[in-house]
Amino acid sequence: MRKKRIFGRTAIFIISAVFAILFLLPTVLTISNSFMTQGEINANYGVIFNADSPSSYTSEKATLKFIPDKVSLQQYITVLFKSPDYLLKFWNSVILVVPIVILQVGTAAIAAYGFTRWRGKLISGLFFFYVILMLMPYQVTLVPNYLVSQWLGILDTRWSIILPGMFAPFSVFLLTKFMRRIPASLIEAAKLDGAGEWQIFTKICLPQCRSALYSIAILVFIDYWNMVEQPIILLPDAAKQPLSVYLSTINAGEVGIAFAVATIYLIPTLLLFLHGEEYLVEGIAHQGSVKG
Amino acid sequence: MKKAKKAWFGANGRIRDFLHSCCFIGPSFVGVAIFFIVPFAVVVYYSMIRSPINPQFVFLENFKNILTNTAFLTAAKNTATFSAVAVPLAVVLALCLALMLEARIPLKSHFRTFFLCPMMVPVASVVLIWQVIFSYNGVLNDFVAIFGADKIDWLKSDYCQIVVIILFLWKNLGYNMILFMAALANIPRDLLEVAEVEGASRAYKFFAIKLRYLSPTVLFVAILSLINSFKVFREIYLLTGPYPYQGLYMMQHFMNNTFASLDYQKLSAAAVILAIVMVIIIALLFLIEDKFGKDVEG
Hints:
The structure holds two protein chains of two kinds.
Chain A: H1 2-33, H2 38-49, H3 74-82, H4 84-117, H5 121-135, H6 138-152, H7 159-166, H8 169-179, H9 184-192, H10 197-208, H11 210-225, H12 229-234, H13 243-246, H14 255-285
Helix pairs in contact in A: 3-4, 3-14, 4-7, 4-8, 4-11, 5-8, 8-11, 9-10, 11-14
Chain B: H1 2-11, H2 13-46, H3 61-67, H4 70-100, H5 108-116, H6 123-134, H7 139-146, H8 160-185, H9 189-197, H10 202-229, H11 233-240, H12 251-260, H13 264-293
């Protein structure tokens, strides 16, 4: 019996390990390949990305290589000092995504408090409407977004992405779910002490939700950091597009640069992630059911 | 005066509550109204008129047109197939992984982190690696060649959806798994212990106890995966550009290409149809959850 159990556990360990490695592989590959020289990248992948015009030094076969022959910062130097386009696009991403995250989580926190404290029929109905809206794919909300941007004259400006992003119902939903778990006695006690609603919100509610706020901010950040659909429709001006879209236009001769840019693009997410993994898991853990 | 005001508010706690709730929910609601509700009403209106310049009421004509449009039908079929395969897989496999990680094995918390890793990798770099693996001269073909198979361009073959499904699963399993792990941890231990003492089989413990407590999470994960399955357009767009192989032509491609010609009638009709289909799917999921999750308070 005991023997069987140990055997089972070893099997599970091996399967998990295989999965874990598969999951980790692309990340490791991106980072390690960003330290290769352009020559080495060409030798490894030239056959894939330069299929039309194979240059003399490409090998016949593509190889996935993990460890560079020679660690080089060549790609990074190109990205950081020689082609300002990438940094510009990176900055575009930052000034789109940071306002969205802050505004969305801020508005959502206030609204979530409203949905937590008052639960009349009207408000419950409204909350259910938010849930439905949250579940609508972007293909449904895209046309309405486009129309509003046109009416407000903000089409092809950053506001056409930031403003709808600010009111996305996803954070409202998650935060409401979280706030409803705060013991009502805590709020009642504060009320008896003469605290106003705004005070209860800022002094009691928000500190209780810190992990949820953080985890939702990370989720929203990741989502918008990788956005593609919105910019190509609402922000056709290439000069204002974020790096997530621009990366797709990097041409075949610059694959090495692409890895370096991708690595740089990964850093903000990585930092948020490493700093808040526990929050993220804790925040996710309390979500549970979809219905109000 | 002040006293009167106070008395008025005191006697009308309801009005005060209403005003308070307006203050908190108001800002968000105004935004939602401006950016989603009002324009969506206009979209519904647009879907039933001939054109914005010639607003003749034609009721279902635009819908008839779009339901016979080959591009729309292809996009709808591909999107539906993709979601129908990818979403159940994302739920079941994530649940399996979560159950596996319940066992006491070394490095457990590290595995959890590794599984979450794909979430943070930028879409664009994932796409590079997928190209290295699946393109005509890619690594997978070299591997397949060992067994004597012919080289194919995976993204332009009948297997293209499988390639994208793998990408989708790779990206989403980790997060779904964490949700399941959290839900598993919330199942009352004593219940499982009683079952153990009573000599319940493993299968019984899973189906009769765990799955019942997990049912709200299953619904949540399913819905989340469904939302994410519509976002797979990002990867496809970065992999294959605005005009992919037919099997990868998704709803978002159709919308983008229709935007290029600014055909509001087509766009509106497509958006309305999609919204209706989504509402039906959501209602079905809620009904199913009601049936299964009735007797447990999650």
